[in-house]
Every structure is written in structure tokens, then in C-alpha cells.
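To: structure desk
From: M.T.
Subject: fold request, one chain
Message: Could you run this one when you get a chance? Sequence is below, nothing fancy, just the single chain.
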Amino acid sequence: YSYANIILVGRVQVIVDSGMAVCFTLTTPLGIAVGTGISSGYNSNSPVALIVEGIFDAISAGILIYMALVDLIAADFLSRRVRYNRLLQTLSYLSLLLGSASMSALAIWA
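Reply: Done. C-alpha cells follow.
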């Protein structure tokens, strides 16, 4: 998402764009190669594996929350239409809290 956003905004030069595209293109095959390489000696129930998995899950959840709050929701909440309409503001915040509470309740069973 961030690479596409940078390209759409157009804040970088062609050389930098090309370099970023190459790096972006190579990450998936590199990840597959690393995963294939460590799969033979991987024990998913070992304490180290569980700690590493927990850390990666926490990092990805943090990135997801940041992207949702800063890039997606902030644009809606800071729009002119919402800022000057108290009822729409209140309904927006209540909807956000209700959605967060619903997702938290679903996380109990996941």
C-alpha cells in the first residue's frame, strides 16, 4: 500500500521509483525461499517459534491499526462535512467504537 501511495502522490524520481519497484517485486520470492529453507527444521511448538510468531503478529497488528487510523479513518473524520456537523461527528465516533467493540468480541473466539 505505501509503495502505491508514494507513486500516486508522485513525490519521488523515476530512478527511485524503479528501485522501489524492483525491491517490491523481489520481496515475495525472497520470502518464499526463506520459508522453504527453514521449513525442514521448523518446530511450531517450540518456545522460540511461539515467541517469534507472537512478536510478528503484534508488529503486523500494530501496522494494521496505524494504517486504519492514520490513513483511512483520519481522512473521513477530518473532512469538512464531518467537522461542521455535530450529529454526524457523534454518529461517526459511536460507529467507530461499536465496530472496535464488535471486532474485540470476535477476537475472543478467534
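Reply (cont.): The chain has five helices and no strands. Let me know if you need anything else for the meeting.
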